[in-house]
Amino acid sequence: MDKEVDPMAFRPMRRNKQALPLETCIEILKTEPRGVLSVLGEDGYPYGMPINQYYCLENGRLYFHTAREGHRLDAIRAHDKVSLCVYDQGYRKEGEWAWNISSVIVFGHIREVEDQSQGLAMLRELARKFTDDEGYIDHELTSAAPRVMILELIPDHITGKLVKEQ
Predict the structure, then answer these.
(1) pLDDT tens-digit profile of 100-159?
(2) What is the DSSP string of 82-140?
(3) What's the number of domains the chain is made of?
(4) Burial, 35: exposed, middle or buried (Cβ in 10 Å; 0-12, 13-18, 19+)?
(5) Which position among 25, 75, 87, 113 has the lowest Cβ density within 10 Å, counted as fewest Cβ atoms?
(6) DSSP character for 19?
(7) Is-contact 82 37, C-beta < 8 A?
(8) How far apart are CA 61 and CA 86, in angstroms?
């Protein structure tokens, strides 16, 4: 997280016994490829959309790709505060029907990545979450990169919890 944020700016977790340590939250962000990015949309309506994401360990930021125009980008340009929810596949304990799901919520500010080489590097890393076929990745970056905008989420607050669905 880049800057100091007033700890009172975010509510404490109500069921804090279920809280995940920050290291576990980061592991989920690193390994899970998808989440739901929520922005403040038109006329104040929340707008959440499924999105592929990449967590960069070197700087603690998250990266996404989007079209160079559309509802998502308009909303981000109007209001840069967002939240991202990422959750794992979950597990069941032997003999139990309920799933145990870990989820992470990231609150932060999002911006367009202006540095083309940084954007391509992050896009490459995002693609590697889905395939290790470097030839395919090279082809996709060559053909699609000119039409893609890379977004960077700078976290202000990260929280996570383990919930047993019962």
Answers:
(1) 999 999 999 999 999 988 989 999 999 999 999 999 999 988 988 888 999 999 999 999
(2) EEEEEE---EE-TT---EEEEEEEEEEEEEE---HHHHHHHHHHHHHTT---HHHHHHH
(3) 1
(4) buried
(5) 87
(6) B
(7) yes
(8) 14
Query: What amino acid is encoded at 119 in this protein?
Result: G
- Pairing of β 148-164 and β 61-67: antiparallel
CATH number where 135 lies: 2.30.110.10
Domain of 27 in residue numbering reads as: 16-164
| Domain membership flag for residue 3 | no
**Cβ contacts of 69 within 8 Å, gap of 6 or more:** none
In a domain, 131, yes or no: yes
Q: Is it the case that residue 5 has pLDDT exceeding 70?
A: no
């992050």: which residue's tokens?
122
Judge contact between 153 and 61, C-beta under 8 A: yes
Give pLDDT, residue 8. Answer: 57
Q: Does the residue 10 lie in any domain?
A: no
Residue 11 or 35, more confident: 35
